[in-house]
């Protein structure tokens, strides 16, 4: 069974209001899964669909490192999170974690974790 069927991406691609973004692909979901399996304490934050982008998810590790990928539908990332036994939060309700902003600020300045 492919990712499209397993995580419901085929159903998630129907309709929607985004106009400029490309649809979610297998590689997007695979990237989130690989990130989650290779880091400690990963949490998913689901971002809503907008006029310009489809639904996305941000995976944030304990140290604040993060990636954002298209997921097609909130149900897709919730299923991935459930399969990996990781939490998935609605970013409109809980917001982004502070460690994510701190990690981004450190990397913009070119500082390492030890600095």
From TrEMBL:
Taxonomic superkingdom: Bacteria
Name of the protein this chain belongs to: Uncharacterized protein
Organism of origin: Marinitenerispora sediminis
Organismal lineage: Bacteria, Bacillati, Actinomycetota, Actinomycetes, Streptosporangiales
């Amino acid at each position: 069974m492919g990712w499209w069927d397993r995580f419901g991406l085929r159903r998630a691609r129907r309709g929607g209001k985004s106009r400029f973004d490309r649809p979610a692909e297998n590689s997007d979901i695979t990237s989130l899964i690989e990130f989650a399996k290779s880091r400690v304490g990963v949490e998913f934050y689901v971002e809503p669909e907008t006029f310009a982008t489809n639904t996305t998810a941000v995976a944030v590790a304990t140290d604040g490192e993060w990636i954002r990928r298209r997921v097609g539908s909130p149900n897709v990332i919730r299923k991935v999170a459930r399969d990996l036994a990781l939490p998935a939060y609605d970013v409109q309700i809980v917001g982004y974690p502070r460690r994510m902003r701190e990690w981004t600020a450190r990397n913009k300045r070119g500082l390492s974790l030890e600095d």
